[in-house]
Amino acid sequence: MTRIGIHDLAVATTHHVVELDDLAEAAGVDPAKYRLGLGQERMSFPAPDDDVVTIGAAAAAPILERHGADGIRTVLFATESGVDQSKSGGVFVHRLLGLPPTVRTVELKQACYGGTAALQTALGIVARDPRERVLVISSDIARYELDSPGEPTQGAAAVAMLVSADPDILEIEPIAGVNTTDVDDFWRPTDSTTAIVDGALSLDAYLHSVTGAWDDYRAQGGPDVDEIHRFVYHQPFTKMARKAHAHLAAHTGVELPVETLETSFRYNRVLGNSYTASLFVGLAAVLDHEDDLAGTRIGLFSYGSGSVSEIITGIVQDGYREHSRRDETAAALAARVRLPLDDYRALHAATTTSSADVETPHVTTRPYRFAGVRGRARHYE
Ligand code: HMG
């Protein structure tokens, strides 16, 4: 049987970053609540000319530079921060990257689960024709209302993955455990730039989904918990992954040390929630910071509010370290410009669902930017 999986992955983020210590000070909150209580230090924040298209293109460009576009006949763009109700953000990315017209392009949505749905779709396309390679882009900007409990769990990032036969990095195994439960824990109405969330319910729904997906994974014949060497969870804030791991340990009756999650937090702690990208940001952090994973099995838990969740596993490939983009990711994180709190609040408040014509100020120094709206259509350069 053909081995199929992740051949390359790259992370990108926004121009700005907000220090959660600044947020805590302004809110009169103990900074330890964010650092330890949530496990977060910083959150990426978009400049006016950043959005999910520009950071998605920034994540995908280095993949095309390394591998070229041969065999790519599909772009799957996963987001819950879509820039249009009809047109896929992926079509803008397709043009920015100079991809040929012989590529089908579509956007997928189911809260943070959308990236995993895109990955599963890509695996199916490559299984049908192993000559094909699929570009999967998960890109999101997490927004909650100012002064709400969700505010310190905002963030932004994009992950691009090339899915192919004979992957260099992670072979995805065929067995998956899934769980769909209709729940109003988190959603974003079409007229709102911020999510509505029932925090306590969202935590419960996430944990319920961990065990639901796990039980299905086992029922499908998936290996037992002690045959999975590393777990990576969707990280709305890194403490959530600790809760999930403890919950899985209690459910299975097997001791699962939370310290083994530490490396998966390295990027998410300083990016914040990146919705569809978050799980794969965690995967990138593990692959970039652990040297001895070749041949081991990694379990990936994906949760999207509303809710759909899934557990999949992958086998780390020999030589995966040679394909690491650790230095590039470190550079993207370090290049972010710290946003003073007053400026952050002003930018946040100025975000709108309006499609009125506007020229966007030139702020970002990265290669792709949202230039503005003309004739009610978005323009990128
Ligand atoms: P909150 O009101 O800040 O909660 O809301 P809290 O008062 O319970 O405090 C949080 C933690 O900080 C607690 O730890 C406190 O003890 C601790 P815990 O008991 O839970 O382990 N704490 C301190 N620790 C150290 N020093 C201190 C201190 N003070 C308190 N001084 C909440 C927290 C996460 C609910 C809020 O930020 C929120 O609503 N966030 C958005 C929703 C969310 O992220 N939900 C997660 C599950 S749903 C999901 O993952 C899907 C999602 O990504 C969306 C999608 O699918 O698209 C969100």
UniProtKB/TrEMBL annotation:
Residues annotated to bind (3S)-3-hydroxy-3-methylglutaryl-CoA: D30, Y144, K243, N273
GO biological process, one term: acetyl-CoA metabolic process
Keywords linked to the UniProt accession: Acyltransferase, Transferase
NCBIfam families: HMG-CoA-S_prok
One GO molecular-function entry: hydroxymethylglutaryl-CoA synthase activity
Coiled coil: none
Residue intervals of the Hydroxymethylglutaryl-coenzyme A synthase C-terminal domain: 181-249, 263-334
Protein name as catalogued: Hydroxymethylglutaryl-CoA synthase
Protein EC: 2.3.3.10
Active site: E80 (proton donor/acceptor), C112 (acyl-thioester intermediate), H234 (proton donor/acceptor)
SUPFAM superfamilies referenced in this protein's UniProt entry, alphabetically: Thiolase-like (SSF53901)
InterPro entries: HMG_CoA_synt_C_dom, HMG_CoA_synth_N, HMG_CoA_synthase_prok, Thiolase-like
